[in-house]
Amino acid sequence: MEKQIYIIGHRNPDTDSVVSAAAYARLKQAQGQQNCFAARAGNLSPQTEYIFNRFKVPVPEHLPDLIPKTSYYLSDPPVTISEDVALWDALERMQKESLRVIPIVDAQGMYKSMLHYRGFANYIITHINPHKKSYFPVSINHLISTLRAQPITVFNAQEVKKSPIVVAGSYNEYFKQHLEEASPADALVILGDRWDLQKFCLERKVRALILTSGHTLDRELSALAEKNGVSVITSPFDTSSTAMLIIYSAPVGAMGDDTVPLVRLNDPVRKIREPLSKAPSRCLPVGDADGRVAGLIFEGDLIKEPNIEVIMVDHNEPSQAIEGIEHYHIQEVIDHHRLGNLSTKYPITFINKVVGATCTIIANLYREAHVPMEKEIASILLCGILADTLTLHSATTTDTDRNTAEYLSSVTGLDISQLGQELQTEANRINARPADELVAMDMKEYAEQGAEFSVSQIETDRPDDLITRREEILGELEKIALSRNYLFAALLVTDVTILDSLLFVAGKKAFTTLINFPQKDTGIYVMKDVVSRKKQLIPLLSELVEKAGV
Q1: Can you give the pLDDT at residue 244?
Q2: What is the pLDDT of residue 129?
């Protein structure tokens, strides 16, 4: 499969993160990189959902994780063969295309079984047994195709029926006895130019008469074949070659190995390792959600680079990235936060600027590349800047953010103040969300002085509504801290009307007893003039973590 590049923001994404991914993917596509796709590592907030719906921009694909999956290691498009194809034709194709295995499918492309050389050998051993009578599933059309035969009379050409092969290689009476024991109505009789035996077979109404070395019937016997409904074909090969090729006339579906399981595109690699190691040729068919074959995966494919690469936007710390990102080549990082501990084995493009929003950086990348923005993209970029800078009032806002917002305003015709108010109205709907959703929104994880903690942030013009839900919110924060063994978990609730915040904190006493911020209520602290998590709050919390010494 063609390599795909996912442009994706941090876990529990905010508006800036999702918009940055969508807009940067559109820029890459405009520059000819059609394999770039926007993605998101979490659910949309009400504000983000409103923005994408209002400006009719497709929402980035939701990726719950990037844990290695089977589909990430597929390369070539699938080669399959219909279950109705003759075994000889299937083997010819395998040899011509140097295939070790080939999936057998039905008319709808649904997986049925696997053709591989070990299975073929088992088939031959099973069906060519001198100690017992062998019956081969075959149609007249398969015989004609495999033998390159000339049809003389043909009846029920497509019917696949198990038939014994009887060779007229003995004296008349012994042959006649042998044919009777083999059930004439099912038998495929191979003989040459012996008129007497030809007539006898036609009178006994055998299933098919196969004449070797190009021999044919005379008119009298041709008429008898028509009358008795006997298929007669002429093989250009001698008796021994004809008998051998009949074995290969069976439909390939009759001898496929149906013990080889079908794995799915979204199956984690860890799930398929064991069945893959036990499969013939160390290969498994891969199916889509409907069971149609989408490819093959070999054991050796798992040591290759996956067909997925990543561009990180609005974050650069692995702890904030989508789960499983360490398995992939990171092409670029575009961010406006502090530097974390990201390391790569190769050089990458790394853009980190002191601005209030990643959308500011993305908008200016369009301008630097002289790529005109579609109006809807310029609109969501403006929304991303206003959302992340509290309509340009946040302490993180720079002149670059203001200038870029003015530029986007002129391109879109949107009024900055009015749009900011509309975005805040949508953001305020967050107050009614369940507590677990509130603390999961825009949650970022940090590591300081050997301790780990998380800080979420939401914005509202009615923070008092959340104070009344103190026990519920602190309970969810406590669950997070305990389940992940964090030093603490916090939620920063920013009041966009007065540009102050409340900080909800739950965690270990070694930390919470050190908090010296003005207290609103138990577990709730007043953060005067604090609206920026990264620039104002995290430095304060880092100092407390250092004092805790845990």
Answers
A1: 84
A2: 57
Residue type, 206: V
Q: How many Å apart are CA 205 and CA 196, to the nearest integer?
A: 14
Backbone angles phi, psi at 144, to 5 degrees: -60, -45
Beta bridge partners of 11: 41
Distances (CA, A) of 52 to 44, 57, 219, 389, 418: 10, 5, 79, 19, 17
Token pair in block for residue 88: 């000889």
pLDDT of residue 515: 92
Amino acid (1-letter code) at residue 483: S
Strand 150-153 to strand 135-138: parallel, antiparallel, or no bridges (unpaired)?
unpaired
First-last CA distance in the chain: 48
> Contact 92/234 with Cβ under 8 angstroms?
no
- All residues at 6 or more sequence positions from 237 whose CB lies less than 8 Å from its CB, including other chains: 147, 212, 213, 245
Q: Is 36 helix (H, G, I), strand (E, B) or coil?
A: strand
Q: Where are the alpha helices (DSSP H) in 413-521?
A: 416-427, 435-440, 464-467, 470-483, 509-512
Give the SS3 label for residue 12: coil
For the chain, residues with pLDDT lower than 70 are 1, 119-134, 169-171, 550
- Helix, strand, coil shares of the chain, percent, nearest 5, are 40, 25, 35
Bridge partners of residue 459, in order along the sequence: 494
pLDDT tens digit string along 127-174?
555 555 667 788 999 999 899 999 999 999 999 888 888 888 666 787
H helices of 97-237, in order, are 117-127, 140-147, 172-181, 195-203, 219-228
pLDDT digit string (tens) for 505-522?
999 998 999 999 999 999
